[in-house]
Amino acid sequence: MKKLITILMLVAISTAMSFAQSGTFALGVGSDMAGSSWQDYSLEPTVGYFIADNMLVGTGFTMESGDASSNKMEMSPFFRYYLNGSLYAMGGITMITVKDYDSTTDIDVGVGLSLMWNDKVAIEPSLGLAIGDEKIEIALGIGINVRLEMD
């Protein structure tokens, strides 16, 4: 219940729109809800950089540990192109390594919406496809980003 309240509070503080600027870093955290219940989710910290206006490149990183059979690490580089100030198309790959098991790679494509609270904070719901070796999953995600300008 505490997790749900925390997520709802983060969603509630973010609700306007803005344009991306080159030279800006984007730090965030997201959660992909594909294949999981409302009680089970994982958070993926992300970092990105606007290489030009409306073009963001970045990567996400997730690490899970538990018993010897469940140690897992994911690295997910991505590219986003903002079609207008808020709607974006994205593509990327997710490389998954599980201890003592084979590694897998998924191709990710989708669209999202960057809803700005102010010039710095955005909530970003997304919908996409995760295409793997023998699977295709619909990926519903939500994230929150903070944009930092460096002079």
Explain this structure.
- The protein is mostly beta strands.
- It is 7% helix and 58% strand.
- It contains one helix and nine strands, in the order H-E-E-E-E-E-E-E-E-E.
- Strands 1-2-3-4-5-6-8-9 form an eight-stranded antiparallel barrel.
Give the amount of beta strand, in percent. over 45%
Mean pLDDT: 76
Helix and strand content put the structural class at mainly beta
What is the assembly state of the chains in this entry? single chain
Largest sheet: 8 strands, antiparallel, barrel
Order of helix and strand elements from N to C terminus: HEEEEEEEEE
The DSSP helix count reads 1
Outline the secondary-structure elements:
Elements: H1 2-12, E1 24-32, E2 44-52, E3 55-64, E4 72-82, E5 87-98, E6 104-113, E7 115-116, E8 121-131, E9 136-149
Antiparallel strand pairs: 1-2, 1-9, 2-3, 3-4, 4-5, 5-6, 6-8, 7-8, 8-9
Summarize the structure in short:
The protein is 7% helix and 58% strand. The chain has 1 helix and 9 strands; from the N terminus they run αβββββββββ. It has one helix at 2-12; strands at residues 24-32, 44-52, 55-64, 72-82, 87-98, 104-113, 115-116, 121-131, 136-149.
